[in-house]
Specification:
Layout: E1 11-15, H1 21-28, E2 32-37, H2 41-50, E3 56-57, E4 72-75, H3 99-109, E5 113-118, H4 129-140, E6 144-151, E7 162-169, H5 175-178, E8 196-198, E9 210-211, E10 230-232, E11 238-240, H6 243-249, H7 268-274, H8 279-290, E12 312-316, E13 319-322, H9 337-340, E14 346-347, H10 350-362, H11 369-387
Parallel strand pairs: 1-2, 1-4, 2-3, 4-5
Antiparallel strand pairs: 5-7, 6-7, 6-12, 8-9, 8-10, 10-11, 11-14, 12-13
């Protein structure tokens, strides 16, 4: 145990590293990246450019050894089988099931700390089967664990992005680290004068609607078809953000993913950004890990017997307990979405706007009348541009 009041740093091996969101956030908190493992060639190009001197390897199934002194494995393991937007095969799927490779490495190297990230739908899919599998493996390897769903908006970025962050340790109770801070945000409910994000690919079951924020950035297709959200701007325009602003919405600097263009076309960058872990969330966890000592009190313990998992929970003496806690550990000042955008956005195409508008009109979803009128005016103007 580290003495109370001291600081510490971890040596982190990043699995399923993507473009390095977790590792960048942890490094900003003073932790060192010892290895990056990523199978996607486009993401590897980014990692090799942005983490000079750090070994970058491919297939995790072929990884046998971690660098000496590594005391944490971190990774946002593949979500395709666990996502509501994916094929929902569950933890037994060929991609999300790769989390077992983390447990293999953790066991063979006796790694004291693990940090995992994934989509909240994993808590409900197949009555929580994914979490059941993960916590059984963790407990079988001697780890105590805690997890919490956190929203990227809490950290000052105008992107509504909720993700599960799970911390496990053989040497310390991880719960006080994750359950620090409990803010109930006063979110904007009036769209007047605000930029509003939505997904133009929806319109039947949902809108992905967000006031002064974009909905969760998505990875898009495996063949590199970009899937940016749309934004209804205060001046009435319907646009999509520049890829450089999408990077900033995840906490990266502009053009962080540009090295991927040396491997494939520019549109692949949207997939990389959509699949990334938000940097400031990882930074917050890294800051909490760097500190030691102290206790956290919380209310709302309910024994978990079966079924879907709650938005936060921890293990104690072999039992799992729910935690009644906000998805916002902090509430950092957030810029208005329209002010946040630094690069000129692109107008949503006539075809995309028309398709979305038809789906919205044929369904029963509620949407502000002013928004429907803005869509109509956008279609009329874009159509006029096409005919001239």
């Amino acid at each position: 145990m580290v003495p109370m009041g001291s600081t510490r740093s971890f040596r982190v091996a990043g699995m399923f590293a993507g473009i390095g969101g977790i590792e960048l956030g942890l490094s900003r908190a003073g932790h060192e990246t010892t290895l990056l493992c990523e199978n996607d060639p486009f993401a590897r190009a980014v990692l090799e450019a942005r983490f000079p001197g750090v070994p970058v390897v491919g297939d995790i199934k072929e990884l046998k050894r971690l660098p000496k002194g590594t005391n944490m494995i971190a990774g946002g393991f593949p979500c395709q089988d666990l996502s509501q937007a994916g094929d929902t095969k569950g933890i037994g799927g060929s991609r999300s099931g790769l989390v077992d490779e983390v447990f293999r490495l953790a066991e063979s190297h006796d790694i004291p700390w693990l940090l995992l990230e994934n989509v909240p739908f994993m808590l409900r899919l197949s009555k929580g089967a994914a979490m059941n599998h993960i916590v059984r493996r963790l407990e079988g390897l001697g780890y105590r664990w805690a997890y919490r769903v956190m929203d990227t908006r809490a950290f000052g970025l105008p992107q509504r992005r909720e993700r599960v962050y799970l911390l496990a340790s053989k040497v310390e109770d991880p719960a006080p680290i994750l359950f620090h801070g409990n803010v109930e945000p006063d979110l904007e409910t009036d769209h007047t004068g605000q930029a509003c994000g939505f997904y133009w690919t929806e319109g039947v079951r949902g809108l992905g609607w967000a006031i002064s924020a974009v909905p969760t950035l998505k990875g898009g297709s495996t063949v590199g078809i970009a899937s940016p959200p749309a934004i209804w701007m205060p001046d009435g325009r319907i646009v999509t953000p520049d890829i450089r602003d999408a990077e900033r919405l995840q906490g990266f600097r502009s053009d962080w993913t540009k090295p991927a263009e040396g491997v494939g076309r520019k549109s692949f960058r949207w997939k990389l950004v959509g699949n990334a872990v938000s940097v400031p969330v990882a930074r917050w966890i890294g800051d909490r890990l760097a500190m030691s000592g102290g206790t956290v009190k919380w209310d709302g313990h309910d024994g978990i017997v079966s079924g879907s998992w709650p938005t936060a929970a921890f293990e104690s003496d072999g039992c799992a307990f729910a935690v009644d806690i906000s998805k916002w550990p902090v509430h950092r000042k957030q810029a208005n979405l329209s002010d946040f955008l630094r690069y000129e956005p692109k107008e949503l195409s006539l075809r995309a706007t028309t398709g979305f508008s038809k789906r919205l009109a044929s369904g029963t979803l509620r949407a502000p009348e002013a928004f429907r009128l803005a869509l109509k005016h956008h279609i009329e103007r874009m159509g006029a541009n096409v005919t001239h």
